[in-house]
Fold these 2 entries.
Entry 1:
Amino acid sequence: QKEVEQNSGPLSVPEGAIASLNCTYSDRGSQSFFWYRQYSGKSPELIMSIYSNGDKEDGRFTAQLNKASQYVSLLIRDSQPSDSATYLCAVGGTDNYGQNFVFGPGTRLSVLP
Amino acid sequence: SQTIHQWPATLVQPVGSPLSLECTVEGTSNPNLYWYRQAAGRGLQLLFYSVGIGQISSEVPQNLSASRPQDRQFILSSKKLLLSDSGFYLCACWGQETQYFGPGTRLLVL
């Protein structure tokens, strides 16, 4: 059974700081990794994807992947109160149809003005 | 890109009543579709997924069922709701190596 783990939080950071969200996964054969943001009462929305070891940057967001350590992280630079949400890590397998797609429980982020 | 519709948006039902939630998808054909439930303050629980018409896989045994009568339609049903069925129900569609979610249905069972 594939597992994806995240600290539930809440993670509180002051406005303008860097927020660091972490995720570990159990299946060493996992190939694709995603971060979703979910505002309270809303559905999750995809914000980042990463497939190769290293860093991937998109605006204020940086995803980091280390397959050897089975670890994925999301950094949010210059955090804003509007970044306050729950962040879900998702991990995909080698299939092309999503049957082995697993979500973590999410980390709640609170950015304090 | 696909668009996912869900209705109703909110629903309040008494215990023991039936349930029918509908999900439809536009902009893609033969999609893989998923039903998730999210209890208050909790993570996503995969309930069912479907790879085609009439093909349903259940992840968690419970009093819910799913059907896929058409290529882009996915229905979640129950004959008798329990209090524990309250939650946020999300339909998702597979595309571009990840899942995309509809707006969700918030169900409160009283």
Note: Chain A touches chain B at residues 32, 34, 41-46, 49, 88, 90, 92, 96-99, 101, 103-106 (CB under 8 Å).
Entry 2:
Amino acid sequence: EPEVTQTPSHQVTQMGQEVILRCVPISNHLYFYWYRQILGQKVEFLVSFYNNEISEKSEIFDDQFSVERPDGSNFTLKIRSTKLEDSAMYFCASLGVRSEQYFGPGTRLTVT
Amino acid sequence: QKEVEQDPGPLSVPEGAIVSLNCTYSNSAFQYFMWYRQYSRKGPELLMYTYSSGNKEDGRFTAQVDKSSKYISLFIRDSQPSDSATYLCAMSVETSGSRLTFGEGTQLTVNP
């Protein structure tokens, strides 16, 4: 069964550094998403992406964040200058034909 | 008032029990309702997906939506220790592209 994959599974970075989180959505899906989950808190929407542009973004998704689909399979989330409060699980999701969202296993980002 | 409210538990039941998980919401524009299961430090796994009001059954799982009361439920029959996880309700306004709004999640333990 096709699934969303994400790399790396765990990323440790120093405050102020740039990180890129990678996702491979399910083939033939057209909408892609990033969510984050701070430890012990709810899953929060960051951004949705369709047809090579941002469809919607939340107030969390400020100028420090960007997304890109650099080729036909990858979907990336970049954080330009990480802060301690960016430490969280980051989940990529893609939209199925019945409008259901399938999530990847997540990348745990630790900012020190 | 939170858009989506979910009792975080924890909920502990004996094996074989019927489990009832619930969410309430305030945004009457929500049309699509989902239940996800999440194991510790893993990605949300889609369990059930329903549109508008009504019931949906899949094996031991039944999802109910009551839009008039802004209330959704997930029932698990004959619960198993492998059902031990955090259960997240999620909902969205439209079909393609809409963000999911999640509840806090209910932590369930099924004891053998």
Note: The interface with chain B takes residues 4, 6, 30-31, 33, 35, 41-45, 48, 50, 55-56, 58, 89, 91, 93, 95, 98-106, 108 of chain A (CB under 8 Å).
